[in-house]
Design goal:
- It holds the Pfam family Aldedh.
- This protein has 473 residues and is an alpha/beta fold.
- The protein contains 16 helices and 16 strands.
- Helix 2 packs antiparallel against helix 5, helix 4 crosses helix 15 and helix 9 crosses helix 10.
């Protein structure tokens, strides 16, 4: 494995810092060349990337890797290549009357050296998508992938060497201690994707260097079924959104709010929808395993606690298979009547387990969402436009998809990011370019300016001009 010592981390950082100082504003051609090499890295090594991620998970659907990682990244790079010239252009900004005929401009300037800490659940997408934005903005980039995906991390480090010089893009592999050293470097911007708990520690480490951070975290993202929703369509969507990557998705529905009296019906429809997607589990290449034994045991402990507390547990195992000795595939599980003090109602689940909670009124549903930390995503299903507007206006979430799951994530014309405990800042498309740029305001003074008349020595001319300024402003 390409383990990199902490002293090499400092060397790579210094190399990139020196390179940026020599070329602080790469032109359009240079940036496009870097993006094209990133696209080549993505397109030429699809099989290797899928194989490495599959090895790390023990069983990871190749189709999910191709769709949710490679396709998303490829689309993002191509979008950036198509729009980069416009993003780089100086923007005209209006000038207030007293300062005419001077001119205002906004110049998007590269920040310098950007650090990206990527997680294990979508190891390619959540590393390379922010790299796309950082390179488009003209920066140098260091990436620290997760130690939980060693095969992929080693592959990514090798691919970076193959397609980039180390002063452009470099991948730093290593354990959690290396991660702590990485986030303590004086980056010009740091993007972290991971848990809220670790995100807090990253923010503290970055604060020591006054490094600005973008935190893409998670939380308990609700899905809400309105009384007006089409239950068949809604349950099919939630089943897919929840079980993609076996629920190991930061924007997966974490719990489901349904109208009072519908929990039984919804449970049955969800079970049927899951069975259609995954008629078998154990040897089904479409159904992904849990990343590690620790995470697998955490999910088992959550279910055991809920069962002991009297919750209704529905395991969806269409073929009746024994999964206990066949790796880390976890049976899709629905949980009813879960008390709010249970772990699965307090913690982000991050697995194929879905609590179902009944609500009596829209007010109660809104209150349930707002009593918890602000989620990364919210999903609403229904046809009642008044209720939809209430949910959109009276709850706060990082992003929303209406009548489907997760699709707000892949909109290159929209920002993606959290709020509150689910994160800060955003990226994707132009929003990523702007995150990794300094929009530098520039004022261009005109030779016809009368500003000199407001300088000392003050007198009658100053008073007349000052009075005029007060009047026109």
């Amino acid at each position: 494995m390409l383990q990199v010592r902490q002293d090499v981390l400092g060397e790579r950082f210094g190399l990139q810092r020196a390179a940026f100082e020599k070329q602080p504003f790469p032109d359009l051609g240079v940036r496009k060349d870097r993006l094209k090499r990133l696209l080549a890295l993505t397109e030429r090594h699809e099989a290797d990337i899928c194989a490495a991620i599959n090895a790390d998970f023990g069983s990871r659907s190749t189709h999910e890797t191709r769709l949710a990682e490679l396709f998303v990244v490829r689309a993002g790079i191509r979008h950036a290549l198509s729009h980069l010239k416009g993003w780089m252009r100086e923007r005209r900004v209006a000038t207030t009357l007293p300062f005419l005929p001077g001119k205002n401009r906004l110049v998007p300037q590269p920040l310098g050296v950007v650090g990206i800490v990527s997680p294990w659940n979508y190891p390619f997408q959540l590393a390379v998508a922010p790299v796309t934005a950082a390179l488009a903005a003209g920066n140098r980039v260091l990436v620290k992938p997760s130690e939980l995906t060693p095969a992929f991390s080693e592959l990514l480090a090798g691919l970076a060497v193959e397609h980039f010089s180390p002063d452009e893009l470099s991948v730093i592999t290593g354990d959690a201690e290396m991660g702590k050293a990485f986030v303590s470097m004086p980056f010009d911007h740091l993007l972290f994707t991971g848990s809220t708990a670790v995100g807090r520690q990253v923010a503290i480490a970055a604060a020591a260097n006054l490094t600005p951070v973008t935190l893409e975290l998670g939380g308990k993202s609700p899905a809400i079924f309105d009384p007006s929703c089409d239950l068949d369509a809604a349950t099919a969507s939630v089943a897919y959104g929840k079980l993609l990557n076996a629920g190991q998705t930061c924007i997966a529905p974490d719990y489901l709010l349904v109208p009072k009296g519908q929990a039984g019906t919804v449970t049955a429809k969800l079970a049927a929808a899951v069975a259609r997607l995954y008629p078998t589990l154990r040897d089904n290449p479409d159904y992904t395993a849990i990343i590690s034994d620790r995470h697998f045991q955490r999910l088992r402990a959550m279910i055991a606690e809920a069962r002991d507390a009297g919750a209704a547990i529905t395991e969806i195992n269409p073929a009746g298979e024994d999964l206990d000795t066949t790796g880390r595939k976890f049976v899709p599980t629905l949980v009813g009547n879960a008390s709010p003090d249970l772990r699965l109602m307090r913690e982000e689940i991050f697995g194929p387990v879905l609590p179902i909670v009944e609500y009596a009124t829209v007010d109660e549903a809104i209150s349930h969402v707002n009593q918890a930390d602000r989620p990364l995503a919210l999903y609403w299903f229904g046809n009642d436009s008044a209720n939809r507007q209430r949910i959109l206006r009276e709850t706060v979430a990082g992003g929303v998809t209406v009548n489907d799951c997760m699709l707000h994530l892949v909109q290159e014309y929209q920002p993606f990011g959290g709020v509150g405990a689910s994160g800060m800042g955003a990226y994707h498309g132009e929003w990523g370019f702007r995150t990794f740029s300094k929009e530098k305001p520039v004022f261009l003074q005109s030779r016809l300016s009368a500003g000199a008349l407001l300088r000392p020595p003050y007198g009658k001319t100053f008073e007349r001009l000052f009075g005029l300024l007060r009047h026109i402003t």
